[in-house]
Write a structure and sequence with these properties.
Blueprint lengths: L9 E5 L8 E3 L3 E14 L3 E5 L3 E4 L5 E5 L5 E7 L5 E3 L3
Antiparallel strand pairs: 1-7, 2-8, 3-4, 3-5, 3-6, 3-7
């Protein structure tokens, strides 16, 4: 399979109750939930997503992802090649 000139694809796995910290990307971020239940939180809302859901997070939106207390989760994460992540929570 040829390498993409625009995107990369990564698999991300979280254990039960594990989440990352608030951060933002300088380009859109596409998530495809492949297993479990995940919470995607912004400063305005928390959204539960499940297997089969596709989420597009706008460039610059402060957010985090995490597994629910009772479920591990996995998603495919598709950013533009060379996009930058800025950690916003310590």
């Amino acid at each position: 399979m040829p390498d993409s000139k625009e995107f990369e694809v990564n698999v991300v796995n979280f254990g039960k109750g594990v989440r990352n910290k608030f951060y933002a990307h300088d380009s859109e971020q596409i998530l495809l939930v492949t297993s479990g239940k995940e919470v995607i939180a912004t400063e305005a809302e928390d959204k539960l997503v499940v297997v089969g859901d596709i989420v597009i997070i706008p460039a610059g939106e402060k957010h985090w992802h995490g597994a629910t207390r009772d479920s591990e989760f996995s998603h495919l994460y598709v950013p533009r090649l060379g996009s930058k992540l800025t950690q916003l929570e310590k």
